[in-house]
Amino acid sequence: MRLLITGGSGQLGTDLVAVARAAGHDVTAPSSDEMDLRQGDAVLAAVSAAAPEVIVHAAAFTAVDRCETEVELAEAINVGGTGHIVDAARSVGARVLYVSTDYVFDGTKPEAYLETDPTNPKSVYGRTKLEGESRLGPEDTAVRTSWVVGAHGNNMVKTILRLAGQHPELSFVSDQRGHPTFTADLAQLLCHLAADPLPGVVHATNQGAVSWFEFAQAVLEAAGEDPQRVKPVTTAELTPPRPAPRPENSVLDNAALRNAGRPLLGDFRESLGPVVKTLLGEQCQE
To answer: Is residue 271 within 8 Å of 184, Cβ to Cβ?
Structure first.
């Protein structure tokens, strides 16, 4: 297929471009300089030149705390940019796979969130990503994911390993729970959905619900370190407090995929070890 991937140099996009090309797809991945999402004419020109069958829209303003103060930029990219992508897609007859987020929920539900549950974002990031979802057409798919980590870009696995090399004891919150999702796994699923459409809202995460405290322990264990070096704290005890509120419960039930008989991503622990090994190897080379 002909795919256009936004955010191709990002954490998810890097794996997505590699996976799609390995699968034999014809991939175009314009940079932000080549296609400024805030400029409708630039988006239309890039999409028209590529003539994709599917646009995987992975680009976003994801700096959650900065979104609280840079509201106009978050809206321009996450809402306006998504609208431009959808409009351009319609002009060439393409479908859109839009990567969305667990932050569309307020995190107060005690059970895992279904695709059909009411949304109630508490942060600018969550609100703008949800508004981006509203720009999609009936043939498009919003793929909500959570706690995205991988071998590329800045993410929590890299942060945990860096801190472990600098401090004898680490503190991570124990009152926020979710599903860590590895970019290489999510990229495979996005390619599957590009080839075999599942319109509507889809929750797509690796399996295995943990707190950030438990995830940090798992990272240290995968690195051959003592997981007891990680100590639990509450969100209220964080100093300084985070500007953007985080959902206490970010666990997403992958019901739409399961009910459609589509493959689910494996347990996050299966993907954690190889990524930690890769990142530790990079640290040794630095």
So the answer is: yes
Tokens of 75: 């809206």
Active-site residue, from 98, 103, 113, 125: 125
Q: What does R_g of the chain's alpha carbons equal in angstroms?
A: 19
Q: Where are the domains of the chain?
A: 2-153+179-207+250-266
* CB distance 92 to 109 below 8 Å: no
Amino acid letter for position 205: T
Q: How confident is the model at residue 281 (pLDDT cuts 50, 70, 90)?
A: confident
Task: Evaluate whether 212 touches 274 at the Cβ level (below 8 Å).
Answer: no
Cis peptide before 240 (omega within 30 of 0): yes
Q: How far apart are CA 236 and CA 239, in angstroms?
A: 8
The CATH H-level superfamily of 2-153+179-207+250-266 is: NAD(P)-binding Rossmann-like Domain (3.40.50.720)
Structure tokens at 122: 């508490």
Active site residue 103: no
Q: Which pLDDT band, with edges at 50, 70 and 90, does 64 fall under?
A: very high
What mean pLDDT comes out for the span 161-169? 95
